[in-house]
Amino acid sequence: MEKSSKRVRVLVVDDHTLFRRGLISLLSDFTEIQVVGEAGDGNQAIDLISFQKPDVVLLDLNMPVMNGINALAAIRALDLPVRILMLTISQADEDLIGAIRAGADGYLLKNTEPEELRKSILRISQGQAVLSPEVTASVLQAVSHKATSTPPSLLSVRELEVLGCLSEGLTTSQIGAKLFISENTVKTHIRHILEKLESSNRAEAVSKANQLGLISHSS
Are residues 109 and 165 in the same domain? Predict the structure, then answer.
């Protein structure tokens, strides 16, 4: 079923103004969809989502200030019943898998036909997952590879980011500033990290994470 008794409230997030406005104009032609806001970066999106509470967010990947993956994780931290559909030009496996791990409900390429975009938004709003045909094979291959090689991480993408900050000795406020999230959200992530790693404090969590190879060292 694609039809719904109420219109799907959509927020459009893309840093390219011409594309964003064109997309909004296109969506306005669909009677089942209502655009409730637009944003040019992740920070703006988070503020608007908290205020507008859309059903679906169309989220670009490569944006200034806060990219799509970080914005996605921050949106998930709001703990709102919002569905997130990535709409991007990137077919890179790391972007695709990173978005899915961070909590994306769908991943569409910007060359998607208007009617398919409409159907995808409606499906996403009803709890279904959506992938562009061009990236489906990459997802299946990545899942298959993970199942036969490296076991899945104990921690989410955002928790791994917070853990990396802990390993650098950053304070709660410094982590929040670096990752563009609130201190309360940082504390929530740290609590989850301690629980998952069965640690009583931050130092113990970092030590265990190093033993498990969860912290990458780029120096």
Answer: no
